[in-house]
Amino acid sequence: MGLEIERKFLVRGDAWRKEATGIPYRQGYLCLDRKRTVRVRTIDERQGLVTIKGASTGATRMEFEYPVPVQDALTMLDNLCEKPLIEKKRYTIRENGHTWEVDEFFGENQGLVIAEIELTSEDQEFTRPDWVGKEVTGDPRYFNSSLIRAPYSTWKKT
Amino acid sequence: MGLEIERKFLVRGDAWRKEATGIPYRQGYLCLDRKRTVRVRTIDERQGLVTIKGASTGATRMEFEYPVPVQDALTMLDNLCEKPLIEKKRYTIRENGHTWEVDEFFGENQGLVIAEIELTSEDQEFTRPDWVGKEVTGDPRYFNSSLIRAPYSTWKKT
């Protein structure tokens, strides 16, 4: 078991892309309760993972992650998970001594790009690169689980 | 991934007990949808398992089972699973070339005893021992998942 502490931001422009290479992620949910989520993920169609997370308190939540055979993960994604699945590319970007994960969404969430930074404590300080925009930590619309029930393409643009 | 084919029966009397030794099982559910369940189980407080099952078709359902650290399983049971948890003892009984699993329930399901036989096909034949009573395969009241929402102690006895 681990505790996940992460902050989430919108991304501005394309400067972050530089030479970053995106890895394809597919994921779906077996469970989307307020109190816990159960996620199935494949990374590059080569790794399978089942991840169980508790409810968030601030930027922190309980997390359990287990590797599973990729064929199991693909079968669960196709047969058991809620639809639509989430399809994205994940870019790992190292800046100012911190690792950012930038998720570029496709399918029904095309157009959405989110950056996440994983921290060791909620008040850990870090420098925001120029391409990091508005913080959306704790905004439920941006939870991956919400992007299934209300994909980005259905949002009213304001 | 496996396919689980099992038939389930009520148990009559105590003849099945003989020298059988029960092993304590605790289990809870992260997810109880019609389309899939996600179960956390500890066996004898020494083994942890996460099991994902699809919807039943007859006596058959898709099943994925993964061992997890027992401490993870205990933390998930206490913090993330729906309550009440299911507490039972499982007895493994070999009769007429088949293995029966008899579950004796405690807590809010005290008084309920169920026997299950796992088969390799839905039409596989087997001999019922005298202590095996009415078949309840497919009766949703006896799903372990139902025994959380409507425990045996709350049933109207008829």
UniProtKB/TrEMBL annotation, chains A, B:
Question: Active site: which residues?
Answer: Y29
Q: Where is the CYTH domain?
A: 2-149
- Superkingdom to which the source organism belongs: Bacteria
Instruction: Name one matching Pfam family.
Output: CYTH
Q: InterPro entries recorded for this chain? A: CYTH-like_dom_sf (IPR033469), CYTH_domain (IPR023577), NeuTTM/CthTTM-like (IPR012042)
Q: Specify the protein name.
A: CYTH domain-containing protein
Highest classification ranks of the organism: Bacteria, Pseudomonadati, Thermodesulfobacteriota, Desulfobulbia, Desulfobulbales
